[in-house]
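tool_call: predict_structure(chain=1)
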Amino acid sequence: MGGDFGSYSAQLRKGVIQMLVLQVLSTEPLYGYAIVKRLEELGEFVAGEGTVYPVLRRLEVDGLLVSEWQQPADGNARKYYSVTVAGAAFLARSLEEWKRIDSAVRSLEGE
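tool_result:
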């Protein structure tokens, strides 16, 4: 069998994880570990903190997320992430693209 499936899978996951992070944050700001836990609930698709934190940094650098430190009354300061207007637009486009890809794959499977 030709091709490097591991490389393909890693690239696919990277884009999907960006979309999932934006989707999770579209409803409320969350801190990094809460984002990791929320994504882990979706199954083994997300490989934990080592996967999510680099995505958070990249999305912030790209202007799709903003962050701020908050000090809860009962614990340590945490960095909370929120989706920007540009991030919401990016998410909407990503979801539309995902739906087109999913539809095409399902059509081919049904042939």
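agent: Strands lie at 30-31, 65-70, 78-83. Proceeding to next step.
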